[in-house]
Amino acid sequence: MTKTVPHIQADLMNQIACGDKSALAHLYHVLSPRLYGIILRMVRRRDWAEEILHDTFIQIWQSANDYDHKRSEPLIWLSHIARNKAIDFLRKHENRCCSIEEISEAEAGFERSRLSDDSPAEARRLQHCMAQLPSEQRQSLSLAYYRGLSQSEIALSMSQPEGTVKSWIRRALTHLRECIGL
């Protein structure tokens, strides 16, 4: 019987917990591109993402004994470490908030992806429904889904109370469900 990828990764985690540096190197080789992608999407700068990825693997080395294969697959556990490292990094650096230009760029992300007549009807319908949203709701969704920011990060970026941002996102999602007909 061949082992599945999560089982192989769990074996690597066990080897790392026993101090096997070659297992850490193998895990890095296999999973660093995925973890780097998660981090880069959050911090939007390659140099920061590389630094955070390095810190992530140091944390993996130091806390491999804490991994419990019964609670989650290795990739999920490792993704949480990477995400938490990125959040900690962003909190530590005050410039984590998006500038007005970056907010506009995120909102324009859906504008630039105008769909052709050959695009599926559902995608054109979503584009139409997004265009109907008020600017602040569209910006909030863009920052959440295109930039991967949390609601509290969006609130900081837009200089708005977190409750207001939560309301904007909730109303926007409600509007999209109704507009699309779900």
Task: Kindly describe this structure.
- With 182 residues, the protein is mainly alpha-helical.
- It contains 9 helices and no strands.
- Helix 2 (21-43) runs antiparallel to helix 3 (46-63) and helix 7 (135-145) crosses helix 9.
Count of distinct strands? 0
* Termini gap: 43 Å
Q: Sketch the major β-sheet.
A: none
Taking pLDDT < 50 over at least 5 consecutive residues as the criterion, the unreliable ranges are 110-116
Number of helices in the DSSP assignment? 9
Structural class: mainly alpha
Helix-strand sequence: HHHHHHHHH
Radius of gyration: 20 Å
- Beta-strand residue fraction: under 5%
Mean pLDDT: 81
The percentage helix is: over 70%
**What coarse outline follows from CA principal-axis ratios?**
elongated
Key phrases:
single chain, 182 residues, mainly alpha, 0% strand, elongated
Write a brief structural summary.
This protein is mainly alpha-helical. The chain contains 9 helices and no strands.
Secondary-structure map:
Layout: H1 5-17, H2 21-43, H3 46-63, H4 74-92, H5 100-112, H6 121-131, H7 135-145, H8 151-158, H9 162-180
